[in-house]
Amino acid sequence: MADSCKVISIINYKGGVGKTTIALQLAAGLASLHQKRVLMLDLDPQCSLSVSVLPEEAWIDHIENRGSIRSILWSYYEGNVRLEKDWIAEKALHAGEGQLDLVPCHLDLPDYEMRLVSERPPQAADTAEFEKSRHRLLRDAIEPYRKDYDFIICDCPPNIYFVSRSAMLASDYYLVPTIPDFISCYGIPFIENHIQTLLHDLLPEKERARNLGIIRNRVRRSGSKLVNEHDRQSRQIREMYPDLLFDACIQDRIGVSELMGQRKNIFADTTHRLQPIREELQDFVSEAIMRMNRLES
Ligand SMILES: Nc1ncnc2c1ncn2[C@@H]1O[C@H](COP(=O)(O)OP(=O)(O)O)[C@@H](O)[C@H]1O
Ligand SMILES: [Mg+2]
């Protein structure tokens, strides 16, 4: 794609590794620290991102009376795939000179996802066309907005079913958060193979999303070193994917968790207690930008 917008999906088929946390902090950092225009897409029917950003009443009002990710899936069956401007919650979180918008999610998303698994719409002439057009759904819906945003960040659900696959096809990059422990890292080769096979089957090479890296979250330290298990798993990931492991990592801190419940942009906040978290997240956002620049050059 010739424009400068970058679509980044945060993906891992495991829950609880920090996909939503990383999605929000990356978006907030790009908007607040780097004055970027950022659109977040909450693709997980658990709606964690939506309720971390919008007050509950505003979220319910938005999804009931305006629109949500569910409306995009619905638009496919109307024969007119789109994202309407009204479905976007503008300036959902304060971001200084930047812009931080959100398309919230609806708890009913899985019902609509099921329909996309089984029901071919009239405009898809055959099964092959159905396979292609439904996977391109998000890509087609956000295409007109690429000129309005510098980044579009997709918070994926903890699976690689239809919505995640559609996000993969819409993305320029994907980023894999993990906790550096045995269970959380176990599936990384599987995700990588799965995504590569999917992209290979459905997109020409130059349009396929690239892996931006693996970011460790909820890391535990003992003194200045990582605890044994986290250190061991980190070394294993680095051996397996020497270029992919972020140097930055996010420590396990209650303050990170609290941020999500407070609908607070840490980068627009000056609380002293949050400074170590802010610094870690800043490093992560800077490294993400550096990695993108490296892949672009
Ligand atoms: N670095 C961290 N330190 C402490 N708690 C965290 C951290 N990252 C995430 N959490 C908490 O862990 C839980 C899962 O995180 P979340 O981002 O929702 O994961 P996912 O989207 O992968 O399911 C949430 O309660 C979140 O607040
Ligand atoms: Mg999540």
UniProtKB/TrEMBL annotation:
InterPro entries: AAA_dom, DNA_Partitioning_ATPase, P-loop_NTPase. This is Cobyrinic acid ac-diamide synthase. It comes from Leptonema illini DSM 21528. Residues 6-199 form the AAA domain. Pfam families: AAA_31. It comes from the Bacteria. SUPFAM superfamilies: P-loop containing nucleoside triphosphate hydrolases.
